[in-house]
Specification:
Elements: H1 32-64, E1 68-73, E2 76-81
Antiparallel strand pairs: 1-2
Amino acid sequence: MKCPECGVEIKEEGKFCKNCGKSLTEPVSKNRNVTILVIGIAILVFIVILTFLAFTSITYNNSTQPKKFSYIQNGITFNYSNIIVG
């Protein structure tokens, strides 16, 4: 058997590693990769949601601003806002 902390070969009946002192009676976590995967997926989902919210916020702000049109005729500038073009 190998010590889960330092990797030194130890006897099965030992309670502590003679090299590093790690307790051998504690259960070794075999679900570490699963935990890392779940945390990674949660972070990815969080980033996707933030990106979606930022994009919809920008789109909403752009669509709610008044539309402004202007043109010049005979040296006079005509300005119009909130015109519904359809």
